Amino acid sequence: MRQVLYMAALSVTKHNPVLRALYERLCHAGKLQKVALVACMRKLLCILNAMVKHQTPWHLAAQTH
């Protein structure tokens, strides 16, 4: 599971504007790239858990709030 989440987080930091901003903000704050990526993994997991809980599809606009 961790490997899948890691690869998804790598992709998300390049293509999802919300999580890309989180990743860049953490890197500019002096965090190591791997630490910032793990933070994105956690954020992605929280988003996915909320989607499963509420049975909603992926909506990029919903993440910005």
Structure description:
Helix content is 80%, strand content 0%. With 65 residues, the protein is mainly alpha-helical. It has one domain (2-63). Helix 1 crosses helix 3 (33-54) and helix 2 runs antiparallel to helix 3 (33-54). It is globular. The chain starts with a helix and ends with a helix. 15% of the residues are buried. The model has no long low-confidence stretch (mean pLDDT 91).
Are there runs of 5+ residues with pLDDT below 50, and where? none
Question: How many structural domains are formed by the residues?
Answer: 1
Quaternary status: single chain
The whole-number mean of residue pLDDT values reads 91
Helix and strand run? HHHH
Give a brief outline of the structure.
With 65 residues, the chain is an all-alpha fold. The chain has four helices and no strands.
Draw up the topology in text:
Elements: H1 2-15, H2 17-28, H3 33-54, H4 60-63
Helix pairs in contact: 1-2, 1-3, 2-3
